[in-house]
Write a structure and sequence with these properties.
The complex is a heterodimer. In chain A, a hairpin with a 2-residue loop joins β2 and β3. Chain A is an alpha+beta fold. Chain A is built from 9 helices and 10 strands.
């Protein structure tokens, strides 16, 4: 689908197609372009309706519509850590097409420099301070979303976007879900990327409680991001490799709760292995963080040491925001001290 | 004198978690729906083609590996390995090497103290690890530290009451420590009892250990009767119910259930069928004996065929498979004694007493016998007096009398030796224990021969005549070494005839044995 040369109702002129966006914009379903207006450059994501047959189209359009609504909430509530939508409307794709296919929905976003993956590349020198900064900022962004009862559900390194030198925002709400409002993708076993899918989703286990079903997967993804930031390892897959064949998702046909102890066992082995890559002074902290955030039981995830306290639900990430903040500051102070 | 035919129940095996994962017990009916993420792999591959960086390569490598697309996974892994000198993450490099070489995850497992040390390191990371807690408990139990293991077992059960592995392992632990009621309660109260055939099999077996009949036996028999072919996950259940029928005297029903259990046996149901084979004239086919981990069944099968060397080898593997259990060691002691290898028999008996904490009267009797036969008669005499005063002595009177006979022969008192052995034989006959009678006669004949008893020819002849009609392969094995070639051939023919033969067809597709009548 080519929209080059067209202008949106808001006056954004559509330019070159964006090539980098395949992963961090939900780009499998969309086409992306640079757009310009008054000397400013932004980024347009339009639903690529040509990719779908008519039976799928309504569902896909509903999904796009749902994302637009969530982005509008984020904009209205001024969620500064979520990528801002600048314009949301429909653009004429082909004047000769039938009425249904003539227009495509689009979203114009502020343009990011890229995502954080390059900045945490395991083959280059990355400071611990930056890694903790990324984790801290991402936690704050998640808290903003959770505060509006929105679960992101597809938090992954490519969806943490970099603006300028160090401004981080969370992008791609294409798989997000608002509490109390059914999303078209809510019925999917794996709403987000396979690489980072929580264990329970791999076994098609769907907790009845919304917090455990939706927010808990964001918490899990934050744990995965922690591992990725230090090792570039996709943690759930790494754990699955440790799991004996009969207990793997494709072979396990009994209840998820019955296989959970085996996942827990493999998780401990995996963490022990990758912990050699954690900086020694933060190792214990990082191990306990990953263990808690990636706990196989969604009802216990992110809730370590909170038994009997009120720290749970929408506010459970507050502790992790503080924790990553402290770790970031600690790493900064020590580095200064070392250089001095 | 030894007892090679202790009663057997289908109590659950207790293996390390990673070994258990290689058995039928770990498998479930696979889910119908499988996730398809080929599109995701394609998308990530396109991104990789544009952006050849380590993070993107890592994402592609893990994704393609999971999808089973090894070519793409290797391409991604090779980029990571090209930059190996610059990558700080050792675990990422190891993962890439595994993908590139196409090797599986190797799990090096330490043994004994090393395992416990390594496991405790993992538990220090996360103590709430029920599978590992059970593994540690098993190692501690094998070292005779049952009390220390209890804490691990209790915690594991508390953390994972819905895990088949944890519940069955804990059950076996409680059986081992003699807490039969606790073992039974654990199974009876398990939420899995309603639906899980492995838990049901264990519950029925443990109920028989307690001398009770499980409340689910009736419905289980009815359900099994309705199944044309018993699937692998119900083999243990069929043999557990078969044992109940056997113990209650319904041999016909028991035989049918054991035959059902042998359609797709696991090592435990096979061992149970082997145990019941002589009594029920069951046929256990060679193909079934290839069932993984069926060391016990193979040992018993080789013993029945008088292939004592093979029986000993399998019993050694069995003992390694269940290092906390005295039963395989008792069997080893028995088999070595049949072979006249008393040093090895004594070692096995001593190990059995060590793992059992000295509680088993049978193991103590075994040790006594090996002490006598290895010439340690002074100690043996003291032990015999001590065991004779034990509360369980009365129920083991045959063995005690036979041991007294063996001791008297060993000390040169041939008359007294003969007298005790004859009393042992008489006791076995009056108690209706033909197996024990056969062994008493066989060991009597061997002792008389070795001691140079002037009546040894008559004693041996008497033994040879009687063991033919008595159901003990072990007795035949002993006596055949004492008689001339003609008589020996006759005894061999008798033993061979008892191992019934039948032709079988093996359906590889359904992993099913079918008898060709």
């Amino acid at each position: 689908m080519n929209l080059q040369g067209k202008t949106t109702p808001g006056g954004w002129f559509v330019g070159e197609p964006v090539t980098f966006a395949a992963d961090h914009t939900g780009g499998y379903f969309s086409n992306c372009f640079y757009v310009e207006k008054d000397g400013k450059t932004a980024f347009l994501k339009a639903l690529d309706i040509e990719k779908f047959d008519i039976s799928q189209l309504m569902g896909v359009m509903a999904g796009f519509e749902y994302e637009s609504e969530l982005l509008k909430i984020c904009k209205d509530k001024r969620l500064s850590r979520i990528v801002q939508v600048i314009e949301s409307d429909r653009i004429e794709r082909d004047p000769n097409a039938s009425a249904v296919l003539r227009y495509v929905p689009f979203l114009v976003f502020e343009l990011a420099e890229g995502d954080i993956r390059n900045s945490v590349d395991a083959s280059s020198a990355v400071s611990d301070q930056w890694r903790f900064y990324v984790l801290h900022q991402t936690t704050l962004a998640l808290m903003q979303l959770h505060g509006q009862a929105i679960a992101h559900q597809d938090l992954k390194p490519s969806n943490v976007l970099l603006f300028g030198a160090d401004k981080l925002k969370l992008g791609d709400l294409g798989r997000s879900s608002l509490r109390g409002k059914q999303a078209p993708h809510d019925g999917l076993a794996l709403p987000g990327a396979r690489n980072y899918a929580p264990f329970e989703q791999r076994y098609s286990h769907v907790p009845a409680d919304w917090v455990e079903r939706r927010l808990s997967s964001d918490v899990f993804h934050l744990g995965c991001l922690t591992v990725f930031s230090f090792t570039n390892i996709c943690f759930p897959e790494y754990v699955m490799e440790k799991l004996p064949e009969p207990y793997r998702p494709d072979n396990w046909g009994a209840a998820y709760i019955e296989v959970m102890p085996h996942i827990q066992s493999s998780l401990a082995i995996a963490i022990q292995e990758i912990s050699v890559d954690f900086p020694s002074r933060f190792r214990a902290n990082l191990i306990s963080i990953v263990l808690d955030l990636c706990h196989p039981d969604p009802s216990r995830r992110g809730r370590a040491n909170t038994e009997g306290s009120s720290v749970a639900g929408l506010l459970w990430l507050q502790r992790y925001a503080s924790r990553f903040d402290i770790l970031e500051k600690t790493s900064r102070i020590r580095e200064v001290g070392k250089n001095a | 004198m030894l007892d090679g035919q202790q009663p057997r129940r289908v109590v659950p095996r207790w293996r390390q978690s990673w070994v258990s994962a290689r058995t039928a017990e770990a498998w479930t009916q696979p889910p119908r729906a499988k996730h398809n993420f080929a599109d995701e792999v394609t998308g990530k591959h396109l991104e990789f083609e544009r952006t050849k960086t380590v993070p993107v390569a890592a994402e592609l490598m893990f994704l393609a590996t999971e999808a089973g697309n090894s070519d793409i996974a290797r391409t991604a892994a090779s980029l990571i390995l090209e930059k190996v000198d610059r990558i700080g993450s050792k675990s990422l490099i190891q993962a890439a090497k595994r993908v590139f070489d196409g090797s599986n995850e190797d799990r090096l497992v330490a043994q004994g103290n090393d395992f416990i040390r390594e496991a405790k390191k993992l538990l220090s990371i996360d103590f709430c690890n029920p599978v590992l807690l059970i593994d540690v408990a098993r190692e501690l139990t094998a070292k005779g530290q049952e009390a220390a293991a209890l804490r691990y077992v209790k915690t594991a059960v508390g953390l994972a009451p819905q895990s088949r592995f944890v519940i069955r392992s804990a059950t076996r632990y409680y059986l081992h420590t003699g807490e039969h009621e606790l073992a039974h309660d654990l199974l009876r109260k398990s939420v899995l009892l309603r639906s899980d055939p492995w838990i049901q099999a264990s519950e029925i077996a443990v109920a028989t250990v307690r001398g009770r009949t499980s409340s689910i036996v009736k419905q289980t028999i009815s359900a099994l009767n309705n199944e044309k072919v018993i699937p692998a996950n119900k083999s243990e259940l069929a043999s557990a119910v078969g044992t109940v029928e056997l113990l209650s005297g319904s041999e016909k029903k028991a035989k049918k259930l054991f035959q059902q259990a042998l359609f797709q046996p696991n090592d435990n149901s096979l061992a149970q069928a082997e145990w019941a084979a002589t009594r029920l004239r069951l046929v256990v086919n060679e193909a079934a004996l290839q069932t993984p981990f069926s060391f016990e069944a193979n040992s018993n099968n080789a013993y029945r065929k008088l292939q004592l060397g093979d029986a000993i080898e399998h019993a050694k593997y069995w003992s390694e498979d269940e290092p906390f259990a005295s039963r395989p060691l008792d069997t080893l002691c028995y088999l070595y004694s049949l072979e006249g290898k008393y040093i090895e028999a004594r070692e096995a008996a001593e190990k059995a007493i060590k793992v059992d904490g000295g509680h088993s009267f049978s193991s103590n009797l075994n040790l006594l016998f090996t002490k006598i036969q290895s010439g340690d008669v002074d100690v043996a005499y003291t032990d015999l007096l001590r065991l004779g005063k034990h509360p369980e002595a009365k129920s083991h009177a045959i063995q005690l009398l036979a041991n007294a006979g063996a001791l008297a022969y060993a000390t040169g008192d041939l008359k007294l030796g003969s007298e005790f052995y004859q009393r042992a034989i008489q006791a076995a006959r009056s108690r209706g224990e033909p197996h024990m009678e056969a062994l008493a006669r066989a060991f009597y004949a061997r002792a008389a021969e070795v001691a140079g008893d002037e009546n040894s020819l008559a004693i041996v002849a008497e033994a040879a005549k009687n063991v033919e009609r008595l159901p003990s392969p072990g007795a035949i094995h002993i006596v055949r070494t004492l008689v001339d070639i003609g008589r020996r051939n006759q005894l061999d023919a008798t033993a061979s005839a008892r191992v019934a033969k039948r032709r079988w067809a093996w359906d590889a597709a359904t992993n099913t044995l079918r008898a060709i009548e």
